[in-house]
Write a structure and sequence with these properties.
It is globular and about 50 Å long. Helices cover 71% and strands 0% of the residues. Helix 6 packs antiparallel against helix 7. The chain contains 9 helices and no strands. It is an all-alpha fold and 191 residues long.
């Protein structure tokens, strides 16, 4: 289901992915339990589907729940925080988003859990830079570029990938979609 949800999102069918994952989460909880990594991955993929549906409130709620489960300072925590920051920005919570960006970058610089030229570090810095730019705070942008010089070289897209995972190849994606299509057409039909 997680692979399928990723494929659906990549093909612009985020609402379908969200519905499928919302329906499967109670089953995952019942079979694997609240603390299983499989449930975390499913919730992360649901947050990703919410991103594509622009369901910022639900996305942030899920991500905040995931942040509470992962030790701060872990690379996945930083990546999930980036998604949470994005959701806050979309909801207009600029001050909170700026505070999260600043604290996360400070933690990265102090602990060196990620390099300053790591894509996750740059993503957080780019989010903060965009917040500064919207407020015409160009001195802060210059200072930020001094701390994270690689952000000038990084072309950050609006793509959001909450849980780092291996990309599904075109052939594998096609096979999964064919299986789902066959299953969908057979549901409700008896022989």
């Amino acid at each position: 289901m997680n692979d399928l949800s990723r494929i659906l999102c990549d093909r612009g069918r985020g609402a379908e992915a969200a519905l499928m994952l919302e329906e499967i989460i109670p089953v995952v909880i019942k079979t694997l339990g609240e603390d299983h990594v499989g449930l975390s991955m499913t919730r992360a993929n649901l947050a990703r589907a919410y991103f594509f549906c622009k369901r910022w409130i639900e996305m942030e709620e899920l991500l905040r729940r995931l942040l509470a489960q992962i030790p701060s300072g872990h690379p996945d925590w930083i990546h999930i925080m980036s998604g949470s920051i994005h959701a806050r920005i979309q909801q207009g919570y600029v001050e909170e988003a700026e505070k999260d960006c600043t604290q996360t970058l400070e933690m990265i610089m102090q602990t060196k859990v990620l390099a300053l030229d790591h894509p996750r570090t740059i993503a957080i810095a780019e989010q903060l830079s965009r917040l500064y730019r919207k407020q015409n705070r160009f001195n802060e942008i210059a200072a930020l570029k001094g701390k994270v010089p690689a952000m000038d070289e990084y072309n950050m897209s609006e793509h959001y990938d909450i849980w780092p995972a291996q990309k599904t190849s075109g052939a594998k994606a096609q096979k999964i979609l064919q299986q789902i299509t066959r299953h969908s057409t057979n549901v409700g039909h008896t022989k």
